[in-house]
Amino acid sequence: MAYSWLENLFCKTPILHANSYEKANMDLASQIAELQSEKANLAREMNSLLESADQSNQQSLKKIADLESKISELNTQINALNQQINQNTQTNPLFSRNFNRLPEATQKIAISYMDKYPEAYVTYGGRYWGVGRSKYNLDVKAWCLEGQNDQAVNALLNECNGKVSKVIQENPSLTFHQACDISIMRIKAKIGGMVTYAFDSQTWGSDEFWQFASETISGKLGDCEDMAILNFVACRAAGVPGELLRIVAGMTFTDEGHCSNTYLSSDLQWRHINSTTNYPASRDVKTLPLFGDSSENLNFKNLWFASTDNKTFHWFETASVKKEALTIKEDMFLKFIEIFNMDGKRVV
Known about the structure:
alpha+beta
């Protein structure tokens, strides 16, 4: 991938496209091949002993029994790895931390949304590098990843008791998904009370400048995408599965570009957690507007793209959405965005 050195710099890890189960299953298949090779060598050794050994020789018989036991153990390991591959493909292809703690029915619904829309490669190129302020493009998933292991993010979570494990510790009767609901709102309330809205022109002297989560915590200033990014990163660091979360960008019912968050709550509805709205920590996330509800001005009429730390999607299948985006391409939010399909063809 073209920007791997930048990925390593900002995220400490390469950014994967599509479902990470593909790489995981390749690793499992490699382990299976090694075990199969080891089993074949043991089988050859055992057959050689069977052909040449004196059946009354106790030492030979013991060695044959030991080889049979080792082969049986290898078969058990191979079967377990094959089962893991099947499980990864059918029920949990994304491997987000704690995703397997959701009910299987919830997992399937979340996965169906990961496969529902066209995958995209989306880059943002509004940041600059060095004295010459050279612009560079970077996969938007970088902003979903940077900060998940940041000490300041961890401190934020501790201050608001936002970790999912902490919520469950307080109330063991909650399901894991219900604890995520509470965690989401505690984190959003903390960020809303900490970060002051500021235009990029004020903070960076640029029309559109995406901050990383750690920068937003440090400066305590940011606009819609900065708050959306920090909210996503903090929720992931808190243990909320990425399949339940999105950073979304599109056109609102006020006909302006906006970046915000959506969340699949425990009632299995996608809720809009508006990045620039302050909510009390005690508010039930299930009372927030449904995604696309026109009664909320800053909700989304049309989406352009959405991202998790595993996958990015685009919504440019209809001419109207593409035309809408192109009309404001040079205005603010989309100014430095490039969107490609996975064949490398530019979408917008």
